[in-house]
Amino acid sequence: MGKSTTKDARLPLWKHKGSGQWCRKVAGKFRYFGTDLEAALEEWRRVKDWILDGKEPPPHPDDDPASIAIICDAFMEFKEGLLNSGELSKRSFDGYHSTCKFLVEKLKGRTLATSLKPVDFQKLRQKMAAKWGPVKLGNEIQVIRSVFKYAYDSDLITAPVKFGPGFAKPSRLVLRKAKADKGSRLFDPAEARKIIKLAGPQMRAMVLLGLQAGLGNTDVAMLTLKHVEAEDGWLVYPRTKTAIVRRIPLWEETAAALKAAIKARPEPKDPDDAKLLFIGPRGQSYVGNNRGYRVHQEFQRVAIRAGSDRTFYDCRRTFQTIGEESGDLVAVGSIMGHAPRSDDMAAVYRQGVSDERLRAVVDRVHEWLYAGAGEEGGGE
Length: 380
What we know:
alpha+beta; two-stranded antiparallel ribbon; 16 helices; DNA polymerase, domain 1; hpI Integrase, Chain A; globular
């Protein structure tokens, strides 16, 4: 998080690009002081002696231990501990941070959690529904509920927050309707081959990984050189979202495309990106502040040229759909990196999926993509 900042040598704080907050790093820990510079400087002057001395500062006189800001800070400190211990992915941490920032902005940081009424959450949901689709809305509602549950479980508040009926997640009917309205997100084989043919070395390899292994935007953005080099002809890579390790047999076209991408790979501007496989033409990684968005942007440029309205994530949807035609759903899930349900006892006892089963799945998708196409769309 620390490297995405704008510094001014004249100020004791600098602006974090990802969150827009003024911040300072002390003893390896980032401290955030809000988006208003004057208020941030005032707060820094109030707390700096404690922080620089390695102590936690007292709360602001206008703050209450049960304020939205205090609760969100405590929640994020808890999540940061999980991040540092390897129990939480950076992507999930960033998602929690974004939700807490939204909460503080919309409910006001110094609002007491105990003063919130169901009508407040009803109004908040209306703002969220105007901003996000049903799936994103449901996910954000769940996170917000988790924030306040953490506050109650941690004795930051003495009674559970009442959300009321107006802060429910979208119904299954609404979710089904939203999915139906979007129509099929499945690639046509000729459409996919055309995109592969028009793409440059980096995007061609990404699309092939998406189609043959279900890698998503963040997966390819975070892919490192060592993941490809670990085992010849295989990709050994934990899914970014679930940390489930995947072993994926690579098509010849994909292996060739990866070699071409590595050969054409520009020198990264940021030394921290040296480990990443995919580097953009200007020397930037595809990660960015909004992980995977640069993959989406570059894919859209190629898709438009190909006359396609698909997104990069539709590669993952296509792999799942066509891969299931192999008849081996367990092998498909293994390649996709799906986390099994806690009550899935078969997954608990299963010690692995054989290479033959994994190859059968990717072979079925390869047959779908290239049958009757000759050499068209290969990784030249």
